[in-house]
Amino acid sequence: MKAYWLGTTADGTFLEARDVPIPEPGDGQLLVRVRAAGLNRGEFMSRRDLHGAEGAGRPAGTESAGEVVRSGGGAGDFKPGDRVMATARGSFAEYVLMPATSAIRVPERLTWEEAACTPLIFLVVHDMLVAQGQLAAGEWVLVANASSGVGVGTILAAKALGAKTIGTSGSAAKLERLAALGLDAGINTRGPHFAQRVMEVTGGTGAAIAVNGIGGSVFAECMRSLAYEGRLAMVGYVDGVLESTIDVARLHANRLSLYGVSAVLRPPEQRVAAVRAFVADFLPLIAAGRLTPYVDRVFPFAELPAAKAYMESGAHVGKIAVTLP
Question: Domain ranges in the chain?
């Protein structure tokens, strides 16, 4: 089968197309014919702690959707032909092995591309807004770098949960597109210059949850944007800034909470529990049409390197997918 592998150099990451055998499902695994796969910026970041030694290759792709071909023992009640989606290492391939405990049945209303762009982002968003964030209807959510995949997913989910949203972006055109997706207030900036505007929009209260998908360069400003008992979710660091100062007095006086968010870096038992929580809380919203993944652009599988370059250009809003014939 055709598959892509990801390698690392001193300058970044690269994709390599390979011909590899179709894998055989083991105990608790599903062999899935991939119909579409989603791209995620974190996978392509050149981080030694994420990807290992320079030049080391590994199967690429972290989420996909497709049809069950067959299963190993102990894989539950999945049967050939079932439409499933999941986070699964090696998803940029014609076939992938999915843990049955991670596989989620695809609602009929979703396209393959939408389904492929659902598992990783919305598992992260559920953890961020529901499991850890305890978001309530009517609260404000601030999203730094709102046009990213996580940013758009956060806006869509927050609106489905009855919350109000503020987003930052350095592009006025992107903010217009986000407004059409439900963003209540946009702030045109790429830097740490938005706390005052957040306070103005929220009537001086601040955001109940601030989602930091940029990194250390806006960490302090996200803290300044929080309401009393506000929560700051750290989900990414595309700026490469891994350190920041913390206003300890503000943290103490305003009873703030800080937490990290990740899907793939969690222990296996936590990932299983997260899937169950997603199925209980978010899947009904998706099936009912109240929450729909937003796909910016779709590329053919053979053009995955071009899709990666498009993502790294920063021109997209939301998710990017590749489709297989």
Answer: 2-118+293-323, 122-260
